[in-house]
Amino acid sequence: MRRKHHKTDSKTVSESTVCTAQTYAVLSPVFTEFANSMALYILRHRRASIRGKSMSFRSIGVLAALFCAHSLNVSAAADTHIDESRIWIAQAHYQDVQAVREIAPYFTHMRVDRAQQTVTVETDALGIRHMREAGMQVEINLAATARMNVRDRALTTGNPDSIPNYACYQTVAETQASQDAFVASYPTLASVIDIGPSWARSQNSANGFRLRVLKITNQATDSATAKPKFFYMSGLHAREYAPVGVNLGLAHWLLDNYGIDADATWLVDHNEFHLLMQANPDGRIIAETGKYQRKNTDNISGICTGTQTSSHQLGVDLNRNFPFHWNTTAGQGSSGTKCNETFRGPTASSEPETQNIVTYLATIFPVHPPVVAGQAAPDDYAGMFLDMHSNAELVLWPWGDTPTHSPNDAAYVAFGRRMAYFNNYSPEQSDSLYPTDGASDDNAYGTFGVPAFTIELDGTGFFEDCTSFQNTTLPANLAALRYAARTLHAPYKLPQGPDALNVKVSASRVVIGSPITLSASIDDTRYNQSNGTQTIYAITAATATVDALPWEAAALPIAMNAVDGAFDSSSEAVNAVLDTSLLTPGKHLIYMQGSNSSGASGPPAATFLQVVAFDDNIFYDGFQ
Ligand SMILES: [Zn+2]
């Protein structure tokens, strides 16, 4: 079953107002710590502020009852007796979107529920104060905070070579070892490209890391014709564990299924995947110890003294440091304060990590200027840029620093809603509520014209627990990425056509000359319609091709029929009979593709067909 959007929010809010024995058991460690702090506070001040009203308490027992009955007003949490570095899940109601814009420079990945007019952040006491200064009534979601803390408590102990209690995620060292293992296992499909040093390595060759791209393509099919490139990075924000896990998951799917799964095979034959898994390794090794490090560790440009917390940390926010439209929103979309989470750096592209990425993109993407002047990138632009983050549950596209639509907006909306069908995140333009400047997706689109997206993963926490990651986030987003990969030939066009599902042959192995039946379901309905409405069209045609993608010169399209006799619906079962008398013995790829009444053809999907010269089954059957 697909998850309802923002189910997490409504669920946690309702739980936070009910105290059963079960939830008390979960909350009790948090409560004990919280109550101790509150006791100190009350002893000194004899007052505590609950839901904005000042009340006196005779005992902690009264507080305990209130703890169960209500979400506590944050003025208690923000009191100095409570650990300033402690992370809370805080929610605030806003009347005016201006308040959201006001706090945007302090946070990223705010979860905004437009219908309820709430904003939810994972932050510390300082972050909560910023929200209150913007006039917001802030409440702590104690149930969600407790669940997060139970998960995170074990981070302080354990094996230094992995992330304790988060066995599904890899450290920087483990990620590099995985990349090397891919190359060792698949030397003709995978290679590692060193794209330059991290900030720490640039300062001292004994420190830090090299940034490494895992490139996946079938080197045997390299030719003069350029293959579409899919650049996909993760870990730009160090504390976001899950995006790196999804990136590794895509590499596994492509490589482990090559020659086994027809789609994985043609995708690796016809495209290049450039996977920058750990884009901010210096920050990541801090985050691997359970700290909320988001930025890199540049303590010269981003010097920040004092206790390091989520809202007060050294370094530069790499996703505000990209050169295209750097610092364009007068401080609304990034911060000039060094300790802030969104500190943009002293100059555009000041950080080595940013420079490495910008330089590398220029080696793989052709430039199509000037998108910023309002001229659309050509709709047959091949390739795609993706930056994956967590945890706001969004599929985002440019622009991020202005609510004005880009000249390719219609194509972005269609493609974004197609991907969001799979992960059920909200599809929207990046600056639909508040701006960000100097971000990676605007830079890629604005500089090259390449289709550029940011996907924000599941909203349960920056350190998403492994059960949620493996059961929901990973499979849902791999499905979105497999879909995106099938559009790489023309991502501005193909998503506007219908998808090809259940692509099959009636027998996976045939003797030359035996006819077989090809079948598929051509479907135009798969859009996420949660944020606006995408028009769905009737299917008008379907074709099959053998060993050539439908847009290749060698393709000989075979018309497929509507099984019910007429192409008149947005979802059609289709079939065709394939004469195999002209096929050579061996393994063939059969592609199928549909078109709709808007005139758009969708991304193809494939299946294998094994053709043999004579039927040797008798030998297997008779002499095994
Ligand atoms: Zn991020």
Automatic annotation (TrEMBL):
Gene Ontology MF terms: metallocarboxypeptidase activity; zinc ion binding
Residue span of region Disordered: 329-352
GO-annotated biological processes: proteolysis
Active site per database record: 456
PROSITE patterns named among the record's database cross-references: PEPTIDASE_M14
Residue stretches of biased makeup (Polar residues): 329-340
SUPFAM superfamilies, alphabetized: Zn-dependent exopeptidases
A single Gene Ontology CC term: extracellular space
Domain Peptidase M14: 168-488
Cofactor: Zn(2+)
Cross-referenced InterPro entries: Peptidase_M14
Record-linked PANTHER family: OS02G0119300 PROTEIN, PROTEASE FAMILY M14 CARBOXYPEPTIDASE A,B
Family: Belongs to the peptidase M14 family.
Name assigned to this protein: Peptidase M14 domain-containing protein
Lineage: Bacteria, Pseudomonadati, Pseudomonadota, Gammaproteobacteria, Lysobacterales
